[in-house]
Amino acid sequence: MKILSRPIFVFGATLLLSLFQAMPALAVQFSFLDSNYSQEIFAAPLSIGGEAGMAWTTSGNLLTRAGNQILEHSLTQNVTTNGTNVHGVTVSHTITGLSTSGYGMTTGFDGKIYTVTGNGLERFDPNNWAAPATLLPGTVGGPGWGVTTMSNGNIAYSDSANIFVYDPVLTTNTLIYTSGAQVDDIEASSSGYIALSGHSNNTITVITNAGSPTLTFSTATGSGAHAPDGLAFGDGVNTSAIFSNNNDGTITKYKLTPTFDTLLSSTDIATNFPQTYPVGGAYGDLASVGPDCAFYVTQYENGGSNGSTPGVGTHWDDGSTTAQASIIRISLVDSSGLEECGFGSTTHTTPEPSTLALGIAAVAGLGFVALRKKLRRA
Q1: Before 45, cis peptide (omega within 30)?
Q2: What are phi and psi of 343, to 5 degrees?
Q3: Which has the closest alpha carbon to 233: 242, 225, 222?
Q4: If residue 137 lies in a helix (H) or strand (E), which one and from where to where?
Q5: Around Cβ 145, how many Cβ atoms within 10 Å?
Q6: Which residues contact 272 (CB under 8 A, 6 or more apart)?
Q7: Chain-wide mean pLDDT for the chain?
Q8: Which domains does the chain carry?
Q9: For the whole model, what pTM was predicted?
Q10: Residue 138 pLDDT more than 90?
Q11: Which whole number is the average pLDDT over 194-209?
Q12: Do residues 72 and 61 make contact, with C-beta atoms less than 8 angstroms apart?
């Protein structure tokens, strides 16, 4: 369903053209990106080894986590790093009682943010930063990676090999699935499925919200074995696609049947050639879908682990490549280069009107008014 089909702001054609021509080129993290998508270095530099988890405020500000610090990023590009305009941190919130372990975050239907830690599942309120975090009784601790909000409002999370579901209403914790591999990121679809990245054996598994497996397939495709990490469902109306942010600096689209029981095709939509320093790929880690229907992927330097290139974290606008970590925003675009709602999640199907207006006002102030958005349900 199209929400916006005409420009929010009406400007003269001459002004629009001049603004578009004056718009600076976005930094290019991936040397190859499928023409159906656009890329932008959104937030950087991050804390190496931290800030992998992402969530958003009700106003649309990106939140990242570094231990018990929740870092709130600007709606607009307010910092220049290595010649690249990025959305810098405006405030750091210290959450009393929040474990310093873990990374992954998800926003629940109750507006609270749930995060996985070594102690178990914890919850805090982004609308009351002074309130302490709550450790949810009966939940299980682990590395603190995968966590997602399910279509029924429950919270699914991983302790590495096991998938648990926490019910915020009944306050129950239930084991629904045990994997034969180390599970890193997990992502729930609006249609009642959960995708699991098999980090230790290069697989992706899909299960139902009840924990019944529908498919496990190998990610050893194309030029080599991709180690999958951050996941997303989407690609416009094509909700049976799964996208993976891989450890070797690539992003792969896996097209499946609507019931997620058959893999139809796989395509690398983002790569880096050659995969050697200084052009090579960073370590792709956790990922998330924002309220703008874009796919946000983390990029780190990780010593060449799982096919990544040693020394590579971010490729900057000034031509340099450094070990600094970043978050890259990947969006679906139409044939005219206009953004569409390309990725879906249970909590961010389409932007709230207030968030959308803020986002458009922000990019207009930066000379991006020529990029009106056409949004449709993912």
Answers
A1: yes
A2: -135, 145
A3: 242
A4: none
A5: 26
A6: 30, 31, 32, 249, 250, 279, 280, 281, 309
A7: 84
A8: 13-365 (2.130.10.10)
A9: 0.85
A10: yes
A11: 94
A12: yes
